[in-house]
């Protein structure tokens, strides 16, 4: 009887308790918007100067206009192609290099010093090199995006592979499994949770870099368009660009996170462990 | 298929500098179950890893059917104490793994894995993940996986060591039952004298200087003989041999 009552009270109480929390969250956002409107519409200058910042209403107007403009979508598509190409290359190279460095002392000795020298250089500092080396701007931007995501993926793969329990590999080898079998049946699936962490971080970093690279040397793309709007003093469009970058970054990071969670459903914390 | 004959000739085992076991000589006859007893740290697991081909010997020769052991082989399967199942594969796909490595097609794999899961009583849990099973069930899956590849020798490294007493008893009976239908040679490492006496045909006591004591088990794998004078005598002999290296066990056996 006691358990029944407990369940019933919990199920009745839960929605009552949840509703005001959503209200509070929505209210917080609304208050921020109102504050923004008040500061900008009133041209407040309290050391910080809000007189040149666009009001939320101006931004919303500009947003509505841009949503009807095909160039807006071309920019988004361009940025997405760049980031997805760079990220996919970084994932393939980073996972391959991470496994190689973790599993072979020879490759570790050959590659590791190189990686350690290059890793501290922020990818965006590679822009001059990219402009010099690549025949087209486009390839340079993809290169910078790829370089940015490569290192977090490499490092997390290396750690995940090194941390694998030896017993899984021993088991497969005593069944007669060779190196390839160990790689595909033990190393890659076993390291996947760690690799997913690296992919998430890598996706975030490569957004920062694709936008920065576009601002410096792009002809299209969300980053280029945002910077361009700033140079022609179209401040509402700058804010729209920032919001677009935020939404796209959030969506791509969410997609990576979701894919990772799907691929690692077997983890004890997600499999519904029965003891 | 017949069991593998295993032989050690003046073998030293260990990792480089200080061998754990020196000058080891023994024979495992095809199809027999040899239990290896010994205090912890005496090199029982090292011996198994070397027999499996995962660890090269420091000196001497290890032979399987007269051929030197140079690396792992599906003929010599190793069963571990715990957590050797691949946690991202379902029970069925874990048992199918050795069959996939042997190159069986999908349908044959499924049939064979189903058969073995049935034999260890887990047919209804085929689609579960290892983390969703109890420790005893996981070891049953591992037993099925080890035997599904039809190895000619099964090397078991304290396979029931992490289980509670009741589950362990059930697993010993299951093992005896399953082994009766295979011709595989078994080397069974344990630190439990009674487990050794129930499971094995012969029991060896491993010491740093090699195997000094070898006891034939009267009426192996017959629960009815537990506690009969012959088995009691074998038990005392084994405890005595273990006690030669372990003062605590010596105090128990005297």
From TrEMBL, chain A:
SUPFAM superfamilies: MetI-like (SSF161098). GO terms for biological process: transmembrane transport. InterPro entries: MetI-like (IPR000515), MetI-like_sf (IPR035906). Residues 76-256 form the ABC transmembrane type-1 domain. The chain crosses the membrane at residues 22-39, 80-102, 114-134, 140-161, 182-215, 235-260. It is a multi-pass membrane protein. Its main location: membrane. Keywords: Cell membrane, Membrane, Transmembrane, Transmembrane helix, Transport. It comes from the Bacteria. Pfam families: BPD_transp_1 (PF00528). It is found in: Cell membrane. GO terms for cellular component: plasma membrane. Belongs to the binding-protein-dependent transport system permease family. This is Nitrate ABC transporter, permease protein. The lineage of its organism: Bacteria, Bacillati, Actinomycetota, Actinomycetes, Micromonosporales.
Automatic annotation (TrEMBL), chain B:
Residues 6-233 form the ABC transporter domain. One of its GO terms (molecular function) is ATP binding. It comes from the Bacteria. Keywords: ATP-binding, Nucleotide-binding, Transport. This is Nitrate ABC transporter, ATP-binding protein. It comes from Actinoplanes cyaneus.
């Amino acid at each position: 009887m006691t358990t029944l009552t407990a369940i019933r009270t919990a199920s009745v109480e839960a929605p009552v308790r949840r509703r005001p929390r959503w209200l509070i969250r929505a209210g917080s956002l609304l208050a921020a918007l109102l504050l923004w409107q008040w500061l900008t519409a009133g041209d407040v200058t309290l050391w910080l100067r809000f007189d040149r910042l666009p009001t939320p209403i101006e931004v919303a107007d500009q947003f509505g206009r841009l949503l009807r403009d095909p160039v807006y979508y071309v920019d988004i598509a361009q940025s997405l192609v760049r980031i997805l190409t760079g990220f996919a290359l970084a994932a393939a190279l980073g996972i391959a290099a991470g496994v190689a460095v973790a599993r072979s002392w020879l490759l570790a000795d050959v590659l590791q010093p190189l990686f350690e020298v290059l890793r501290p250089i922020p990818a965006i500092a590679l822009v001059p090199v990219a402009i010099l080396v690549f025949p087209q701007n486009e390839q340079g931007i993809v290169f910078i995006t790829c370089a940015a995501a490569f290192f977090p993926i490499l490092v997390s793969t290396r750690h995940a592979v090194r941390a694998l329990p030896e017993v899984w590999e021993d088991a497969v080898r005593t069944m007669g499994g060779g190196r390839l079998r160990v790689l595909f049946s033990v190393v890659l699936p076993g390291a996947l949770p760690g690799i997913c962490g690296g992919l998430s971080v890598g996706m975030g970093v490569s957004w920062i870099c694709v936008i920065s690279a576009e601002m410096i040397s792009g002809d299209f793309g969300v980053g280029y368009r945002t910077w361009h709007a700033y140079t022609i003093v179209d401040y509402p469009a700058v804010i729209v660009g920032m919001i677009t970058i935020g939404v796209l970054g959030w969506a791509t990071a969410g997609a990576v996170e979701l894919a990772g969670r799907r691929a690692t459903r077997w983890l004890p914390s997600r499999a519904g462990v029965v003891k | 298929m017949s069991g593998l004959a295993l032989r050690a000739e003046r073998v030293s085992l260990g990792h480089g500098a200080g061998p754990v076991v020196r000058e080891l000589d023994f024979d495992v006859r095809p199809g027999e179950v040899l239990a290896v007893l010994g205090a912890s740290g005496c090199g029982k697991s090292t011996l198994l890893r070397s027999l499996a081909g995962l660890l090269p010997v420091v000196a001497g020769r290890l032979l399987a059917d007269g051929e030197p052991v140079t690396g792992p082989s599906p003929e010599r399967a190793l069963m571990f104490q715990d957590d050797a199942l691949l946690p991202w594969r379902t029970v069925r796909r874990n048992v199918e793994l050795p069959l996939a490595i042997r190159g069986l097609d999908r349908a044959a794999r499924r049939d064979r894995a189903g058969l073995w899961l049935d034999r260890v009583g887990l047919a209804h849990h085929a689609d579960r993940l290892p983390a969703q099973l109890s420790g005893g069930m996981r070891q049953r899956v591992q037993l099925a996986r080890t035997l599904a590849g039809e190895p000619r020798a099964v090397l078991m490294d304290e396979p029931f060591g992490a289980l509670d007493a009741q589950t362990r008893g059930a697993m010993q009976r299951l093992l005896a039952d399953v082994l009766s239908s295979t011709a595989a040679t078994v080397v069974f490492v344990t630190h439990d004298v009674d487990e050794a006496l129930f499971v094995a045909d012969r029991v060896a006591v491993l010491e740093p200087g090699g195997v000094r004591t070898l006891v034939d088990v009267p009426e192996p794998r017959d629960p009815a003989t537990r506690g009969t004078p012959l088995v009691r005598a074998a038990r005392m002999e084994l405890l005595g041999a273990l006690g030669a290296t372990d003062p605590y066990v010596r105090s128990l056996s005297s």
